[in-house]
Amino acid sequence: MTQKLYYFDAYMSEFSANVISCAPTEKGFAVVLDKTAFFPEGGGQPADTGFINSASVIDVQEENGVIYHYCSEEFEPSENVACSIDFERRFLNMQLHSGEHIFSGYIHRLTGFDNVGFHMGETAVTVDFNGIVTPEILSQAERLANEAVWNNLEVETVFPSDEELESIDYRCKKEIEGQVRLVRIEDADTCACCGTHVRYTGEIGMIKAVAMQNYKSGVRITLHAGARALENYDAVNKSLRAAGTLLAAKPGEVPAAVEHLLEKLDAQKAVITDLRLKLNAVKCEKIEPGTAYYLETIPGGDSKEAQKLCDMICEKALVGAVFCTGEDEIKYCVASRKTDVRPIGEALNKALDGRGGGRAEMVQGSLPCKLEKAVAAWEKLAEQSPEGQ
Fold it and tell me: Mind listing the pLDDT tens digit for each residue in 125-135?
């Protein structure tokens, strides 16, 4: 059994150990040590990385009670090795994990909801709760969590006896066999946890909830903490200032400037739509009454415009078609007031590996090809049709 040094000292970044076993795997050499400060992936927290001698430790996993260090080099059993952890990465995870404990503790206190899912990514933490958290509660929990950071509370790791555990109110996502390890933060949270944490909450720096979405029967909240929160603020601030420069607006004026820009865009779209309708009407004036198959193409048109133009064409032609051009795809609409156009849509789809469908009066779909190829397929269909001859 490997001694878990990280259980007792999360700040240990260097140590020596003896190799118990080493075996080749698809992930590298799986090394088992007699003791380790490398945290194995678990409880939502990613594994530590670092080195054993000069060999890179790329992953650490605990399987059936055995901790495997996946390394780039092979070691001999009983060999004494020097180990070092990427402590910058470890400390970021400590900040994130401790921040999540505090935030989840206050959400639980304010709502009674449980943390039923937790994942720590490279830049953020996501936490799932089994109930709907309101924006007001989210803001309140965030404020209380940061007050706990400002108060620089001690983060304790305790191993209570079974008798002591019965009198302790603590959070836990699953049943635990054997010794329970509690991470306790006075006035903020007590939770069963195997992860690594800071000694004092002041080391977290800041906790920020940046997103919340409905998830299953509750919500999923995305958190930033510590250096990750600072990095996120810096990125958001740079983006906001860049947007302000483009809009000739101060950062606080960006939302209003964007809203004004969207209003202008909507007005311009309405003008463009009106002009395109008039242009399409002019195009249809040149159609000879009684034309069998007639095709028009419009650059970048949408389905509504295609439907309207098709309907205008069908006032004079037996079958009308509109191809809306894109870079590598054609959106088509085929319509008629006198004949079933579904076979025509099916023939286009079959010839050009397209997809779509509709009713007898009108079919729509897409063709993954250039305009020239689509036009050629249409002309071939027109020539083969009795009406088009």
Answer: 999 999 999 99
